[in-house]
Amino acid sequence: SDSSTSFQKSHLIKSLFQLQNVPSVAKGEIVTSHDGKENQLLSLTFSQSQHTSESHKFNKLYSLHKDNDPKVSFLYGTASGSHNVTVWENQTHAQSHPYELKYSLSGEKQPKFLSQLALFDQKIGLNYSINLPENYLGWIHVEQFRSHWVVNVPDVQREGSNITELQQQQQYLIANFEVLQAGEQKSAYFWQNEPKKDKFDYESFDNWGEQMEHLRCERLFVWTLDRDTIQEDLQTPSDDGSEKGSKKESSFREIEGIPKDICVGQFVVSHDGNDIYFVGHPTQPRRLGMIYCEQRPSNLYKLSNWKGKGNEVSCEKICDNVWNALSPRISPDGDTLVFLTTGKVVYHKTNLQLIAMNLKDNSTRIVVDFVRRPKSSDDFPGLFFGANWFKDRVFTSDSKYLLCTVLWRSFDAVIRINLENGRVQRCTPSMGNGSLSLLDYTDNSLLVLESNPVHPYRVLYGEFDASFQVHNWIVVDDCRNVMSKSALNILDSLEWHHKVLISESDGLEYEYFVVKPKILDSDTQQFLTNPHGGPHSVYTVSFAYTYAFLASQGFTCIIPNYRGSIGFGQDVVEALPGHCGDVDVKDCYTATQDAISIFGDKTKKHVVSVRGGSHGGFLTLNLLGRHPEMFSCGVALNAVTNIAAMPTSTDIPDWCYAEVLNSDHLHAPTADFLEKAFYASPISVVDQIKSPTLLLVGRDDLRVPPSQSKEFYFALKSRGVTTQMIYYPENCHPIAKPKDAADVLLRTVGWLLKYTKE
């Protein structure tokens, strides 16, 4: 009836919002006193969903009491944007003014080492904050919306989204800005009037692809800072937008000497300030999609005498023996630069090497090598990174160790790397079997985030021993202390399990985990297989409200990390390229069978559905077509449906050849490719699909063009299959706008419940 349908929708929305409303930890810091022995401060920044708008952020500050019975006490919290905690010279100060203050210079009452400039220009949407201890720049944050450049987006190589970065140096700010190509409209800097619009250049279509199409070529700029003239340099616009007073144009200039066909990525500055080391991305013969693609070619360059002009500046490539260089970091003693490299591979995410360069002679050595096949689940599988790449600070103060978060099979793990011998040590979670992510550290302590599929987060502090183990964790914050009773009841009604599988064909291990209700209220047990995208990606056992929500609606969620997933060693990654649509489909099917046999209630009827996005959508549709006897319903988001049709329309045509042929071919499709790509794709088995299929599409997707879903939709419809396609405007490959992401989940559950009960 209409009333029962209305009640069901209301229940779904309420359950989803309860879980979305659980805060997540965005950042954590340990604030150490001068001698390191007194009480410490712990700062946490949280993010909380607003359902229909961008996330809300807030801060919490804690005091850590070091005595015979160490404990943490809460000091205070702040609302979004109203306060921020700044640390400088081992001193902590909470600034009380909001970010919205316009053109105000504050700092008269700050500690003697600290002053702050806060600027917000509503006309061009610019937030600007600078901490200036003496002649040093502490940090800067610039966001210019609806224009061509963005500053301070970390880790370009992680997923390609940040071809902009900042570094501090005495009296200088070195920033990576975008320079628009000739013929394009150039946005004014914030102190300038808007320039006249240039004639549109119809040839300027080459870009960095999905979510980065607005970026073109990035250069390095230097901003000379002088406390006596900084207010003069940042002139307050008059009411008509013109500048008042004079301005030193020379204070902001491009660093010369960088080849024009090189796009500047991450960079670091030597401790003496004489050299800049940067990652250079070639722009010729063409740009390819950068986001999620860490294997793109690049190199490490050294800029010497960068304060000079013209021929005075020296720019040299310093690593000819590597395919690419990612995340350069300089040790505290200034002697060593470390970076990551993938080696020359055709697939987009992979095992990485850690390389150390001696800055005295530019010699390099491998610190951590590729790992082919770990002997067991306890053995280090190699360096794989997910959402957590190298932070800005990775070294201990003595320059002997690096600390970071890596992927360890289906888990996030905190590790310590000995820079001298490459030994890797893993810190064990306190809950035993969950994910652990590094927030911050000192030379003998850790601030970590612990999580599993039914426990969103616990923030822990602990001091580690020589084996990198913490024996007495202190709970700083636990989500259960702030969650609503309804959300607690939902999570308390769920359980999760983890299982290792071994492929019969090659002996390689892969895994799946299950999130399910503890008690089944229905006579039917609903199974839902959820393969990840990529395909060289992984789902970890960290909390994801998506699976908690689906499980709360009665689904036993099966999350397979099939062969091709990262975090299991290089052999597992390499098992898929050339066998796409075969190995991955078989593993998902086997994991589903295994989960049903172990976690299925034999007294109930079993109904199995499948959902996934991108390559997960490719697997969803392949499973519906290749195993119609098992899967009775499906939902696919921005799914790859026909690889043969993709090379000329996607921003990553190389992906098509890599997964189908295990080749780096990047030219016109061959007949051999077209045939193999077709038979690997869901379009080849569309005649076998009988189950109701929902297609969800981001209209602005450049990675998997909407035409893929559109072609499949009409193919299903012409065959009489129950199907629907929903377009989401202003969404790209991830359908991520809050209200649309919520709609995706609600539609998914509604579709699955409707067509698995009929």
From TrEMBL:
Residues 542-757 form the Peptidase S9 prolyl oligopeptidase catalytic domain. It is found in: Cytoplasm. One of its GO terms (cellular component) is cytoplasm. It catalyses: Cleavage of an N-acetyl or N-formyl amino acid from the N-terminus of a polypeptide. Its EC number is 3.4.19.1. Residues 252-469 form the Acylamino-acid-releasing enzyme N-terminal domain. It holds the Pfam family APEH_N. Residues 241-253 have a biased composition (Basic and acidic residues). One of its GO terms (molecular function) is serine-type endopeptidase activity. The keyword Transmembrane does not apply. GO terms for biological process: proteolysis. Residues 232-253 are annotated as: Disordered. Its main location: cytoplasm. PANTHER family: ACYLAMINO-ACID-RELEASING ENZYME, SERINE PEPTIDASE S9 FAMILY MEMBER. Homotetramer. This is acylaminoacyl-peptidase. It comes from Percolomonas cosmopolitus.
